[in-house]
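User: Can you predict the 3D structure for this chain?
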Amino acid sequence: MLRRTLLAAAGTAPLLSYAAAPATKKIGVALGAGSARGFAHIGVLKALVEAGLAPEVVAGTSAGSLVGAFYAAGYTPWQIEDVALKLRDIEIVDLGQSNKRGMFTGETLQKLVNQYVKDVPMERFKRRFGAVATVLKSGELRLLSSGNAGAAIRASCSIPGVFVPCVIGDEELVDGGLVSPLPVKAARKLGADVVIGVDVGVLPQNTTRVGLYEVILQSFEIMGRSLSQLEGQTADFMIRPDTARFSSTDFTVRKEIVQAGYEAGVAALPELRQLLRARGFGLGRAG
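Assistant: Here is the predicted structure, written as structure tokens:
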């Protein structure tokens, strides 16, 4: 929006000068990795949207990228919850399609995401979005914010040993949790003025592990905690749902995990509003 200012100089006709109004500040969220605990992201988003604090920038890693993509594409948190509760495991993983480089190819997940976002490329999402993945050859972080959404989510979720590496362009990409399990820096790079980090990971609580899949995930949890804590320190605000009582491999308690995220989001609102006001965000009655 332009603000017009009349400038008059002695002995000359009035001149018109236009000054651009300040751009609207954007709230961003960094949705972290966490496998089944990632359902808590849905609850946090429900609390934020309900309070009139809907994020406009979304960065996600692994499970956070999946929830983030749906939200950025235009789904409400309530719609995302509905999808999450209805999905069956067979609709997400490629049972019987393993090879020597992973138990699952990830093709089913890629197709599922593209189906729900109607094949809209990420740069055309309703909100700015990026998924974090890791370049297998070099260990570099790769922020995917344009092109095929399903492929980006597949790459971000491709836990080595569980999923076959995802090939995008000439690069093999694997799970973003290897380099940035809590993508705060990515959210800033995407244009967020204030970044809310949502950390759903915990140190492993359950020592009962029955197979390769569980062992790999527990190893990821151990490795990711230090990285999440370090990057979390760079967030403007942190929300940490109480997910310790849930196993990262238990997909039967999705509703309870969503609720844990919602409760954490609601509890954080008073302090979050105070921060946003201090940072110059104009909050209406709902905020």
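The CA atoms of residues 73 and 125 lie 5 Å apart. The first helix runs from residue 40 to 50.
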